[in-house]
Amino acid sequence: MSGIINSGSKALANDRISKRIKSAIRTDRIMTVVFSLVGGFFLALIIALAAYIIIKGFSGYYPGLLGFDSDGIGNQLFNTVYLVFLSLLISVPIGVLAGIYMAEYAGNGKLTKFIRISIESLSSLPSIVVGLFGYLVFILMTGMRWNLMAGSLAVSILSLPSITTTTEDSLRSLPKSLKSGSMALGATHWVTIVKVLLPACLPRIITGVILAAGRGFGEAAALLYTAGQSTHINWNNFDITSATCPFNPFRPGETLALHIWVMRTEGSLNPNSQEIADFSAAILVIMVLLFSLTARIITARISRKQLGNGKDKK
Amino acid sequence: MNNTEKEIQNKPSKTLINVDKLNLYYGAFQALTNISMDIYANRITALIGPSGCGKSTFLRTLNRMNDLEDNTKITGEVKLESTDIYHGMDAISLRKRVGMVFQQPNPFPKSVYENVAYGPRINGIRNKAKLDEIVEKSLRQAAIWDELKDRLHKSALGLSGGQQQRLCIARTLAVEPQVILMDEPTSALDPISTSRIEDLALELKKDFTIVIVTHNMQQASRISDNTAFFLLGKLVEYNVTETLFSVPQDKRTEDYITGRFG
After folding, report:
1. Which of A1, A98, B65, B79 could form a disulfide with B60 if both were Cys (CB 3.0 to 4.6 A apart)?
2. Residue A92 to chain B, least CA–CA distance (Å)
3. Cβ contacts of A177 on chain B, cutoff 8 Å
4. How many domains does chain B fold into?
5. What pLDDT score was predicted for residue B9?
6. Nearest CA of chain B to the CA of A181: how many Å?
7. d(Cα A181, Cα B102) in Å, to the nearest integer?
């Protein structure tokens, strides 16, 4: 008799459990769909944006658009690459060294906390403010005219925090056993950092550098009053001190991003301004994508070399 | 303790490391109290005891790895061949003479070759032929040359746990230390890898002095010549292994060995 009653209540309990399980599975399936939709949305957004810009840019293409005169954007393209290169030259060494300091040498006191807050604030500064600061310090105070160097210094201010933070975070995320292993072999702290810890962080640091470079490619506001809006360069001039030599960093140089703005405002007197602006946008997007892709390939190669291709067979 | 010391010294061996009244503090907490013992050359000395008894902390005082932690204070003396390691030499030179193998294998994310060549390289050896020679010799000494000679330039992280640990031993050997400290080197490994490393230790003691921390008493009795039993930061008993395990002189040692605690 009791057997029948027990199995009855057991059946009820089982029923409740299976209802709960079914509901959990249903929720799981719904959320999987939601996440996939969100992911798909982002993918569609990026593809639509990139496709629209690139198609619009190339639809107005005329021969000479890539040229190096006032109808073409060749000079601006060169300026952009050169400026990003210069700004990385400044911000990567300083940023990496700062990141090393924060991760390996700084204590936990008030000063360190203050430094950390400063770095974080630096990265949220509005770029036009940085540009005006750059104008004040690099142009007015030095008495120079608008130049690429001032522009790259301004961009460095903006990209420095992200490189510092990336370096510091990736160093901190390494297992402590790596440092112990190296120090136990009689290596000094500095040698350990340079020969073991930094190489182990290389993939993540490269990613941080891509982000910094991306900032430089797209920066416009910070360059308005530092690098300037004009470009007069003579590709036959190899005298690096001359104002028209392409490789002189102390000459004014308009970048692609700024060129788009100029073409849509002051430069609209140029009959081709619309096509130039659209094409500049397309080229900019393609360059950023290419840069990102190349850096990812390099990162993957380094990662593979460090970690092996997965476990060997025993 | 006197009889014990005589017994150990009857086996012909010189004292390589002399520890005298060593105390270690982590901040206000005293982790080691008044440790005095001699470690003999070309012998395997095992440090046993329950978790938290200070055996790993003591091991790390022998190559000054405790210096890497904040807020540690040491009183007393540790001498390597009559030179005080805390006041008579710098930590860098010390660690080239006293190497360490850790509980979790920790190869660098580099190739096998680069892992072993790391030590010699930072000691200034640049000649490729010399490095090749050192790498091969160290891998042979660690009994892992045959397994790895065809994949020297592949990443060390692709190896199994046991292979990684033997690689770490080879990496330590490449610096040609006098002493090898092993902090529970086999506790993360399977029985076969464990026995390989135990055989390796027995081989290595011909050329090196080994101090091994182990929580596995069978391991201690299998491979060590002398055993020290630690409890709550104190050295309770230190004797020839056979004697300590068969006729322990302190009741606490007896309790630990027979499994009454720990």
Report:
1. B65
2. 23
3. 102, 104, 106
4. 1
5. 45
6. 7
7. 8
Among B102, B160, B172, select the one facing A180 at the smallest CB separation: B102
Locate the chain A residue with the closest alpha carbon to B67: A183
Which SS3 state, helix, strand or coil, does residue A287 take? helix
Out of 3.40.50.11060, 3.40.50.150, 1.10.3720.10, 1.10.3660.10, select the CATH number for domain A63-307. Answer: 1.10.3720.10
User: Is the CB of A306 less than 8 angstroms away from the CB of B92?
Assistant: no
pLDDT at residue A275 tops 90: no
Q: Is residue A1 over pLDDT 60?
A: no
Of residues A177, A176, A136, the one with CA closest to residue A154: A136
Residue B61, C-beta contacts closer than 8 angstroms, at least 6 positions apart: B19, B22, B24, B32, B74, B78
Residues B173-211: pLDDT tens digits? Answer: 999 999 999 999 999 999 999 999 999 999 999 999 999
B89-100: pLDDT as tens digits = 999 999 999 999
CB atoms within 10 A of CB A85: 13
Place of tokens 């540690």: B72
- Establish if B215 touches chain A: CB-CB under 8 angstroms: no
The whole-number pLDDT of residue B5 equals 46
What single-letter amino acid sits at A15? D
- Measured between CA atoms, how close is B199 to chain A, in angstroms? 20
Q: What is the CATH number of the domain that holds B71?
A: 3.40.50.300
Q: Chain A contact for B188, CB < 8 A?
A: no
Q: What is the pTM of this model?
A: 0.82
Q: What is the pLDDT of residue B1?
A: 41
